[in-house]
Design a protein that fits this description.
The complex is a heterodimer of chains A (203) and B (488).
Chain A: H1 2-23, H2 27-48, H3 51-75, H4 80-83, H5 87-114, H6 134-145, H7 147-168, H8 180-185, H9 188-191
Helix pairs in contact in A: 1-2, 2-3, 6-7
Chain B: H1 11-30, H2 36-61, E1 67-69, E2 74-76, H3 78-104, H4 111-127, H5 132-150, H6 157-188, H7 193-202, H8 209-225, H9 234-241, H10 244-267, H11 274-295, H12 302-323, H13 326-352, E3 354-355, E4 358-359, H14 369-372, H15 374-388, H16 394-408, H17 412-438, H18 451-466, H19 472-487
Antiparallel strand pairs in B: 1-2, 3-4
The chains are: A mainly alpha (203), B mainly alpha (488).
């Protein structure tokens, strides 16, 4: 009973805030509704027993992605009213894309019903939830079974970082950088002068 | 409790990865700006060469049986050892010949050697891949490093253009490879090479259309990496635009690694489906040989000429794969070793082409070179004769073994086509010799004082000229490597 109630509450908030993301006039409000949608769907994940995914959703999407959106929306001066003007004009194309996505979803979901043997061919079957928590199952996949690929992916990211720095980092003249040693070595005698000022005359 | 994977088979890779990261730290903290940049770059180059040589030692200790590890995603066998030694040698030679070039062209930054080390690491991972995922990860590590190295001369428009072109087209190729892999996974349920091979053996070469589609896409991705027709379009532009030592590197190490990967994928997991892919490889091979022979004739830029020449060489090497037998693979491995030495030699000659302190790249600039640089002219002549496949130089033997293996497998059309196109290709190789010896000198090239170039050129020249005296070590090593691929 309580589980069903919680589900409906989370599901209601997810759908409503999802609708508000695209209908809100103020883009900042849109992003805030997006965050609410993320939180509600995290709640749905917890109900499904996927607690790791729920936490990742909150940490990564709410903590990083949505905040990034917020920064971008606040920093860029975009006239959203102007952007919305062609809305009706693009509606048919949008509906078409939506329909295609819907059909694809149905095919995926119905695929398991049409070919039940598809589930048996996967290389790594999903472990039962009551035997092993999904955090541990994911951890074993990442850090034990696929440790080689995990490390290799790390190296690829390192190369990407080196590449970005190599290709764009330049030494510029006229940039004033903080030089801590110079700051510490500076002495009061070199820079401060005590001047005797006669009363009423000024300097 | 999961058991800890056996790290011995992957020891050279782990060593190289740790060294690359340690050198990166060293370079970052050693660098203080100005003149020290050159110092740091020199130090890191030297240490990288030492690291690559140590990695050769480590790799050669692994020769022996087949050692799978990391949940069977990584495998070290004699084939891998042979190809890894070639790749490591190619990378070390590339760093040696770029040594002076980087300083003269104001691009002496220590990241160059580090990126080459990472690219080499990616190549070794490709060669040892035993799973579609580890194949892709290794390939991507290699490619990403290469994109950056291609545009390393970032103030030069041609170099940045080369990098960008390579990046965009390489991403398309990676996409095709991934699409093919996903199809193969979807229709077989596994990405592991051993399991795939067992699956296809169990069905006696009968398979669904989806798997065939997947193989075709994987073939397209791999053909891009070895720059075989019809996926060769990037090669001339990238080779021309990239800095010359980078082009030298591109034309050897990644080519060899990609060819090794091509062989491993086609012979290993898809070996049971030889009838399905053989005709595609035959077509790719013939088209590459023809394009390499005819398109190079009109070139005036020597780096573009070498690009078309390398497309042609990829075609010859693919003959051996199309044969699909142990003898065929052995001949490809011999061909690749000789190709490595020849190409590094020719690019060292190109690095000598300087006039008033600038690089010149036109073939006409070589005219009458023997009056001023007799030794360089001699070396270039030997290398060009070898490229054209004229006995007794090494290039002849490379082609000889390939054609013999094709004839033994009754692929007469392919062998005859190969011989004919190598006759056409001989035209432009020999034209360079004619220019060097029989044309009037217009303007002399600079006298170069780069000891590292002289050493590399002497070494490769002697190897190419006297390969026929004692070819046994390479022949037997290649035979053992090819045998290990068919043992399992």
């Amino acid at each position: 009973m309580i589980q069903a109630l919680t589900f409906y509450v989370f599901a209601f908030f997810t759908v409503v805030s999802g609708a508000l993301v695209i209908s809100a006039r103020n883009p900042v409000h849109s992003v805030l509704f997006l965050i609410l949608a993320f939180f509600s769907s995290a709640g749905l994940f917890v109900l499904m027993g996927a607690e790791f995914l729920a936490m990742i959703l909150v940490v990564v999407y709410v903590g990083a992605v949505a905040v990034l959106f917020l920064f971008v929306v606040m920093m860029l001066d975009i006239n959203f009213v102007e952007l919305r003007q062609g809305f009706l004009q693009y509606l048919p194309a949008g509906v078409m894309i939506g329909l295609v996505l819907l059909v694809e979803l149905v095919v995926i979901v119905a695929g398991h019903a049409m070919a039940p043997e598809a589930g048996t061919t996967v290389a790594q079957p999903i472990p039962p939830v009551d035997e092993i928590s999904n955090t541990q199952a994911l951890g074993e996949l990442f850090y034990t079974h696929y440790i080689y690929l995990f490390q290799a992916a790390g190296l690829i990211l390192l190369v990407a970082m080196i590449g970005a720095i190599v290709l764009t980092h330049r030494k510029r003249d006229g940039v004033r950088k903080q030089r801590i040693s110079d700051q510490i070595n500076r002495r009061a005698e070199d820079s401060v002068e005590v001047v005797k000022v006669e009363t009423g005359k000024g300097i | 409790m999961a058991e800890i994977p056996n790290i011995i088979p992957a020891l050279p890779e782990m060593f190289l990865a740790s060294v690359a990261m340690a050198l990166l730290m060293l370079g970052v903290f050693h660098k203080t700006g100005g003149i020290n940049d050159i110092k740091a770059s020199r130090l890191i180059s030297l240490l990288s060469i030492v690291a690559l040589l140590l990695a050769v030692l480590l790799v050669s200790t692994l020769s022996g049986g087949r050692l799978p590890t990391f949940a069977n995603m990584f495998v070290s066998d004699t084939f891998a050892v042979y190809c890894k030694i070639l790749v490591l040698a190619g990378s070390a030679l590339a760093i040696i010949i770029s040594y002076g070039f980087l300083e003269r062209h104001d691009m002496a930054r220590f990241e160059y050697s580090i990126l080459i080390l990472f690219a080499t690491l990616g190549m070794m991972m490709m060669i040892s891949a035993n799973d579609l995922i580890s194949l892709y990860v290794g390939l991507e590590l290699q490619s990403l490093s290469l994109y950056v190295i291609a545009s390393f001369q970032r103030d030069d428009t041609r170099s940045t253009e080369a990098g960008l072109k390579y990046f965009v087209l390489g991403a398309v190729a990676s996409g095709m490879l991934l699409y093919g892999s996903s199809l193969v996974y979807g229709f077989t349920g596994t990405t592991n090479f051993d399991q795939l091979a067992n699956l296809f053996d169990a069905h006696h070469g009968e398979t669904s259309i989806g798997v065939i589609f997947g193989i075709v896409f994987i073939l397209a991705g791999l053909a891009f990496k070895v720059s075989a027709v019809p996926f060769h379009m990037w090669t001339p532009d990238v080779y021309e635009g990239a800095p010359t030592p980078v082009t030298a590197f591109f034309s050897v190490a990644p080519k060899i690694a990609a060819m090794a990967l091509f062989i491993r994928v086609m012979v290993g997991p898809f070996g049971g489906l030889v009838g399905e892919w053989q005709q595609i490889v035959i077509f790719i091979s013939m088209a590459s040989m023809a394009l390499g022979a005819f398109a190079a004739i009109n070139q005036t830029n020597i780096k573009r000429l070498m690009a078309y020449s390398s497309i042609g060489h990829a075609g010859y090497a693919l003959i051996g794969l199309a044969v699909g037998t142990e003898a065929g693979i052995q001949s490809v491995l011999i061909y690749l070793s000789i190709y490595l030495m020849m190409n590094i030699g020719v690019f060292t000659c190109i690095l000598y082409m300087r006039r008033d302190g600038h690089m010149v790249e036109n073939i006409k600039d070589l005219a009458g070179m023997n009056r001023t640089h007799p030794m360089l002219a001699l070396a270039l002549t030997i290398l060009m004769f070898s490229m054209a496949g004229i006995p007794p130089f090494a290039g002849f033997f490379g082609k000889f073994y390939i054609f013999v293996s094709a004839i033994e497998a009754h692929l007469y059309t392919l062998a005859i086509f190969g011989v004919l196109s190598s006759v056409v290709a001989a035209f432009y190789y020999l034209r360079i010799v004619q220019l060097v010896y029989f044309e009037d000198l217009e303007e002399a090239l600079d006298k170069s004082a780069a000891p590292e170039l002289a050493i590399v050129l002497t070494g490769t020249g002697l190897f190419v000229a006297f390969f026929f005296v004692y070819p046994t070590p390479i022949l037997s090593a290649a035979a053992a490597a090819a045998a290990s691929l068919f043992a399992g």
